[in-house]
Fold this sequence. Notes:
Rossmann fold; binds adenosine-5'-triphosphate; 61% helix; binds magnesium ion
Amino acid sequence: MMRKNEKQPSQHQEASGGRPTDQRAGRPSQPVDSDRLQEPVYDRRLLRRLLRYGRPYALHIALAIGLIILAAFLDILGPYLTKIAVDRYIVPGNYEGLSVLVALYVGVLVASFSVRYIQVLLTQFIGQNIIYDLRQQIFNHLQRLHQQFFDRNPVGRLMTRVTSDVESLNQMFTQGIVMIFGDIFLILGIVGMMLSISTHLALWTFAVLPLLFFASFLFRKKVRAAYSQIRYWLARINAFLQERISGMSIVQLFNREAKDFQKFRDINWQHTRAYIKTIFYYALFYPAVELISATALAIIIFRGGWLIQTGGVTLGIVIAFIQYARMFFRPISDLSEKYNILQSAFASSERIFKLLDVQPAIVSPPDAFRKESLEGRIEFDNVSFAYQEELVLREVSFRIEPGMRVGVVGHTGAGKTTLIRLIGRFYDVQSGSVRVDGVDVRRWDLANLRRHMAIVLQDPFLFSGTVLENIRLGRREIPEERVKAVARLLNAHRFIEQLPGGYHFRIQERGTNLSMGQRQLISLVRALVGEPRILLLDEATANIDSESEALIQDALKQALKNRTALVIAHRLSTIQHMDQILVFHKGRLREAGTHQQLLKQRGIYFRLYQLQFQSPVAMKQSVS
Ligand SMILES: Nc1ncnc2c1ncn2[C@@H]1O[C@H](COP(=O)(O)OP(=O)(O)OP(=O)(O)O)[C@@H](O)[C@H]1O
Ligand SMILES: [Mg+2]
């Protein structure tokens, strides 16, 4: 039931992407999704790749393993000392020798404590460093990925990769690998010790082992399944929360609280149920181990007591055996848990590696074209483009000469914003070519190309930070004076000055404490302080009041000077005076010309213009 709608891409589809070429770009990349229920993963390749992250800390790891083996050795030594104490000193009544032995025993305990202390510090140090490295690597990788990847992978899921998946790898390095060495050594040591002290009694004790192995086997199997369900539902919770919290205003506007509450309750309940299931197994397993271990104790006491009578073993041996039996069962039951940690780490690492294996589809070619100063010519040559299967642009051709100002109109979904995305090469075209200064954007050095252009998007995005930081956006070389000059030119200076703290006013995440118009003005300033040769503007005048609009209109006039500009507008007043207007309809370029020429044609533009007189918003819905 849970697998419904969870049709998955084949395991390594993303990884096999190969070279980033343009024919790849159009192909929908599959989501990096393995939040589904997982089969157990045994993959030597995976393990080898994981261990590679430990390589920089190889010395530390070796030391940690050495320490934990030493600790196990000390643990095994303790009961042996009690055996000697009983047999050699207590039973014969030699109390002088006993005090020396007790001192030795205390010494062993203190040494064991110190060794474990250092070992825990060391393994945590290793684990934390490894996850630090891994997080850096994942974030770095995410930053290089193409837009289409983010279109297809929900933020909540990617967050899970960087947080809880990485965390479970930490567990593997700190509690898994190192501890397993310790446990195995401890088990072997105890078995060896028991056999060498009294083979007979040892074999009697081991009689309960099959029972223990069977219980561990069952436990491992059940818990693993439950664990993968927990992970699955946790990822669902994350994805759900991420989306609903960012869309809270819509949830409230449409009174969806009750429905979403229900939905969340379902997911949350599934998660709880999966968790309770594991707790059920834990609650059963550990007491069962206790029971088995008690049975072993009973055997030791019963059989040992009898053997003491017949002279087969000494009292000291029985006391040592009782202690060993207690120590013996803990690592065996722990191993079952460690196994689960490893399993979950494998599952996490598989998801992480799958993400890391996604090849960035939009990258600069090896011999990339670079240019210090741009003329600013933009050409679309028979361009067809689809985000998925359906063509969004069809055989579009036009040419914008350096310094020209071009307006783009067309109703909603016509493909206007897509034009801008193609010029900035956020997506690659399926056929035809987009050229800047006569060079195909796919041949340009990406960073260089984008440095020459400024893009102001429909939905301006501001980061948390000051106004100044948002305008500079890391370009520290831009002096504050220049920022202010540009802001003045664009009529943004006055309102910024009036904010508490002026240019140091703290903007909240996504700019929620500013109005839409203010956000647009700030992103316009941000675009223009870099002196871009090309300005791509996406309806900077939508959804704002007429006073702000007048300000922005005036700002635009300034902004368009001395550069090639492509302005998408829903209000024809914005673009009436442009050198050329392109009219798009259902992905095709249908008309082109100046305002006057287009009016004379009495085509789509003419109708848009008429509608605009009736009502400025009507235009978006209209026309056929
Ligand atoms: N990231 C995307 N993934 C898939 N399809 C998309 C994506 N972005 C846009 N589309 C589709 O492409 C088509 C054109 O979108 P585009 O954003 O270019 O329209 P637009 O002309 O800018 O519209 P508007 O005036 O509403 O801004 C739409 O049909 C839309 O559904
Ligand atoms: Mg748009």
